[in-house]
Amino acid sequence: MRTRKIALLGSTGSIGTQTLDVVSHDEHIEVVGLSAHRNIDLLEEQIKKYHPKVVCVMDETKAQELSRRMASQNLAVEVTCGMEGLIAVATLEEAEVVVTAVVGMIGLLPTLEAIKKGKIIALANKETLVTAGDLVMETAKAYNVPILPVDSEHSAIFQCLRGNSHQTVSRLILTASGGPFRDYTKDMLQNVTVEAALKHPNWSMGSKITIDSASLMNKGLEVIEAKHLFDVSLSQIDVVVHKESIIHSMVEYIDGSTIAQLGMPDMRHPIAYALYYPERTMTSYIPKLDFTKMSNLSFEAPKKDLFPCLQLAYDALEIGGTMPAVLNAANEVAVEAFLQREISFLQIPEMIHEVMNRHICISKPSLEEILEIDKWARVYSRQEVAKL
Fold it and tell me: How many percent of the chain have pLDDT more than 70?
């Protein structure tokens, strides 16, 4: 097996560390680039273990500190910073695959630049397609670059579609765990704490995506992603709550057959699938399903009245243009405000709805317009936080 060289954006986050765990089990994957936001202690450990050529730290002060550390230890690695550094890692000549595991809008520009350099994109950054899905997919098509989904749901659909004609697809069915509050009433949701929201019943994830899971915004963002990744209409994408997180998503075909992808709730499955695609490889380090111990697989409709973020995402996708970018930016600000205890859990969708209502949508935006609208939405959202 030939060695595959990868650059990993967001190496100190949840997906990033799990990606490196997959890498550590296979000598045929070489890491040539890494990036982190500001966790240079963990990044330093990763540099010593994986020996990348270039790393990026988004925080300039932390980047300078890491550079001094590397020099004092005579470690031959180039330390860059900011967006320029992130793009440098994403466009490394040696990298064949770029894993985009950063959180937020920050992933858009390096992903686009990596596509233009012909890199295979292993996409774990939802916001890239949510904010600029049409632009990103058109660019990928123009440069003949595959975008391989790393999200467990989209990886599941990607696998279920293999070998079948696009014209035979009836529905994509995204499964959702429902989050920690799936059995709550409206009254119970009034007083949920940050700590409770961060306790996901099935998955181990970063704080932002965990809150998104609790509000069902995560599933809404995945609906928008699915539309762009798989070129289907909004009416062909459904969401079903599946508490056990064993079925990661399904594809229903026009003949009534439904194909599902099953596995333990372990992100290393979809990560490994993307890294080795189109092949499969032995992953003995990942636990396998034991069907004799599974007594029940349950399904129910999502409670959009209690978790309106999901409907807001459907609305943004139906409107199109810059509205999904506004949805995403407002949500990022709202989630951060909730984590900082500045707003309540139920105020998250209220804030997003207010910002969306204030936005005058641009139907076919350029990259510059998307970036400007993103800035506007963040400023307006912070003003709304200050009022609450």
Answer: 99
Pick the CATH number of 4-149 from 3.40.50.720, 1.10.10.410, 3.90.1150.10, 3.10.20.440: 3.40.50.720
Residues annotated in a binding site: 12-15, 38-39, 125-127, 151-153, 177, 200, 206, 213, 218-219, 222
Q: Show the low-confidence residues of the chain (pLDDT under 50).
A: none
pTM of the predicted protein model: 0.93
237-241 sheet: strands from edge to edge:
237-241, 169-176, 247-253, 258-262
Which residues participate in the annotated binding site for 1-deoxy-D-xylulose 5-phosphate? 126, 152-153, 177, 200, 213, 218-219, 222
Whether domain 320-388 has CATH 3.20.20.450: no
- Residues in Cβ contact with 243 at an 8 Å cutoff, skipping those fewer than 6 apart: 177, 178, 182, 201, 298
User: What residue ranges do the domains of the chain occupy?
Assistant: 4-149, 150-304, 320-388
Binding residues for Mn(2+), as ranges, are 151, 153, 222
